Each structure stands twice: as C-alpha cells, then as structure tokens.
Amino acid sequence: MQDWDRESMTALRGALYRRDGAAALALFAERPLRPTLQYAGDALTLALTQDTAGARDRAAECVTELAARDWPGDAELAHRLTTILGGAEDTLTEVPVDLGELGAFLDGAPGPDVYVLDLHKGEVLPVGELNGEYTDEIDPAFDEESPQYEPTRWLEFWPLGHPAETDRADFTETLPDETLRTRLFRILDRPDGIRLFRSALAGTPDEHDWLIFAEERSRGRARHWLATRGLRPC
C-alpha cells in the first residue's frame, strides 16, 4: 500500500480540477482512503457520476470510513455519496466553489471585513470589491438600485475563525513517536506555539501529514458550512 506523498496529492488535485474521475479513482487503487477522505469523497462522487468502473464499491467503503471518522463535513459527504449510490435526488443546491479557498476564508480571524460567496461563479470576494469601497465603481449585480441587481447571487459572511490549536492538538494525538508527541503537546499553548509547532515538524514526513490533516479539516468545515445553508460544492 502506497502513501499519499506530495506527488500523489498533486496528481489527485489535478484529476479533480480536470474532472477526470477515472484518473482520480486510479490513485486510490494502491492507496488508502484515509487520510484524504474529503478528497476521496469528491473523487468518488465524480467517478460515480461518470460511471467509472469500480467506483461503487470504493464509494461504499468511503461512506463507512467517513461515518467512522465523523469530522465536520464527513456526514454531509457520506450523505452525498449515499444519495448517488441509491439513485436519489439531492436536495442541496450546487455551487461551483473551491472548498479550499472557502475554507481558508472561513477559518480566518474574525474582524470587520465582510466577504461574499458568488453563488454563480463560486468566487469568494470582499464586499468592498463589489460595493465601490475599494474602487470607484459598484458592480451592477451587487447594486440594489441597479436593474441588473441579483439579490440571490450573493451569500455574505464574516470569517468564523477556528481555534487552530484544536487541529494541532488532534493531529499530535495521532503521532506514533511518543517523544515528538510529548514535545508538541508542551508547546501547543505557548504564545509562539504555531511557530514552534511548524519548526518541530519541518523537514520530517510528519510535516506533510500535518498539511493533509489541516486541509482535510478546513475542507470539511467549509462543506458543513455550505450544507447548513442548503448548498453543496459541485
């Protein structure tokens, strides 16, 4: 069984970007669904909709693993796969959004800046870019006084912020090296804990594992956030 190294993760992201279900599924032939279950679910969703051979059995396995892990966004993704496997209609509205981008904005520190998700294009934009605050021109589709105003196109939000310490602590729990695990737990609550955490992992295989872990958490939170608003990524 092969690991998810940088090259294979890049290949997986590329297959999803190209919407190549067969290529995405092939990457899982010799690799575990974990630790990339959020990506795996998206890959299998694509493979199922493209009737890719072997996708159904792997998708059923993914549903089981998502239910067992039960991170934010896992239940929503498992439901999506189950819906496709059962041939039922999904009641959530599709949005062409990049979960990674949305997750990065949602996880940002709370502040005065307001953002919008463009439900037509899937882009995340600061409100100031649309209402003339940053430019001298208001986007007609965002201007309530314009005949081109599209009120249902925009979903405003503020960054929710997320205690990154929780992700780092949960990741540390998974490390088999007791010495490293103990060292990381000692620095998590320090004022410079983020820098020390990254420094301790730098150049080790655990550094790559942490990046996958953090990305999975962020994508899952973004998926859950969308679902609570009746939306899902397409």
Counting DSSP E segments of at least 2 residues, the number of strands comes to 5
Rg (C-alpha, Å): 20 Å
What is the SS-derived class?
mainly alpha
Strand order of the largest sheet: 3-2-4
Shape: globular
| Overall pLDDT score | 91
Which residues form runs of ≥5 with pLDDT under 50? none
Rounded to the nearest angstrom, the distance between the terminal CA atoms is: 30 Å
Strand-residue fraction?
Answer: 5-15%
Order of helices and strands: HHHHHEHEEEHHHHE
Query: What share of the residues lie within helices?
Result: 40-55%
Number of helices: 10
Number of domains: 3
The major beta sheet can be summarized as:
3 strands, antiparallel
Give a verbal description of the structure:
- With 234 residues, this protein is mainly alpha-helical.
- It has three domains: 6-91; 113-157, no CATH class; 164-233, no CATH class.
- The protein is 52% helix and 7% strand.
- The chain has ten helices and five strands, in the order H-H-H-H-H-E-H-E-E-E-H-H-H-H-E.
- The chain has helices spanning 6-18, 21-27, 37-49, 55-69, 74-86, 99-106, 164-173, 178-187, 193-201, 205-227; strands at 93-95, 115-118, 124-126, 154-157, 231-233.
- It has a three-stranded antiparallel β-sheet with strand order 3-2-4, with helices on one face.
- Strand 2 and strand 3 (124-126) form a beta hairpin.
- Helix 1 runs parallel beside helix 3 (37-49) and helix 6 (99-106) crosses helix 10 (205-227).
- It is globular and about 60 Å long.
